[in-house]
């Protein structure tokens, strides 16, 4: 047994494999593009390193791609074979067992194993980060915050993972509405770990949720080095900056960021597709002509209709298909969602059932200008949209489409209620979108001769 850079015992011997493993963990915490390179080096030096095989499998499951699940299953088999040949610690076995849960679509069961690791060693930053990532996928923001608050005391000023932990905590605080603390914790974490793009983006979320677009732009400008080293997460940070410009009505800047940064590489990674589709949807809701930008997203999404790994991904594929009027592929994706929903045997299939089916039907109806049907279905999906995972900022595109479909269908009271709830979630801060929709509702009432139920803010 040896100890890694964070003081955790591991079965890999000291030398090149351990050095590469330490680099893997540090890169993973920073969302670094070099993470798979370092992991490959570790496994090349020690192919029977069970923990590294298990973590490799989890990295693949988090990518949310059907074909990569086979690679994750192969990594699980390699991890189990390695553990059979060389007995592993209880800690490492929990990582293997967590992967076994993930590959059968039960990430919530994987959390039980991460919790066991963390209970035994609260300073195990690798387990904490994977727990954090899993809760993000299943939409458990409350559990995310509770877990981090339990472990915080174990991360003293000398712990090499403290800055990254604070970045995670800042995000959890933001997602649970504690915006002031999120901002201060995120900024402090960045002073410790200036390459922590996750912490940087947590502060960007605060600016989004408090309608401070100008402050958010100022926060990100000049800190590009914090995310330029990242994997495709760097596109997501640029997406945040684009959202801020969108709120200020700077549409040409948004389109420039879209072309130059957000879709710099035309990948079909679902996270990149979600950045792009949700941004184009927001632009169109603001009346902006996005040209032929939907086409390449729809081409890529047409190949993902049978994935069924994450409902969050499927709904963004649907946005792309609707955006480019791909009727055949829309029908295919809807059919697959209905099949998965009818089974509902695992966590992922349950999310396909709710909010998945209603949300997808609502998106299709919106694309067909059937706003009554769109509103009814999107409003139904809204009740469980948290279960789709992601962040408030990411899910907000569905909130906006729900509100807009309600306004266009004439459900002014209902749309106003949702708009008010959206503003309340932001501690009363009204962004540009909310102000514009409140004005539309007011004009709609005036045209119909109906008095407003709520006074102007």
Short description:
71% of the residues lie in helices and 1% in strands. The protein has helices spanning 16-29, 35-45, 50-61, 66-85, 90-102, 107-120, 125-138, 141-151, 162-175, 179-192, 197-209, 213-220, 225-228, 233-247, 251-262, 270-285, 293-301, 311-323, 327-343, 347-367, 371-382, 392-409, 412-425, 432-448; strands at 2-3, 9-10.
Count of DSSP E strands? 2
C-alpha-based Rg, rounded: 22 Å
Strands in their spatial order, largest beta sheet: 1-2
Tell me, rounded to a whole number, the average pLDDT: 97
**Overall geometric form:** globular
| Total of helices | 24
Which residues sit in consecutive blocks of at least 5 with pLDDT less than 50?
none
How many angstroms does the end-to-end distance come to? 62 Å
Broad structural category: mainly alpha
The description of the largest β-sheet is: 2 strands, antiparallel
How much of the sequence lies in strands comes to: under 5%
SSE ordering? EEHHHHHHHHHHHHHHHHHHHHHHHH
Helix amount, in percent?
Answer: over 70%
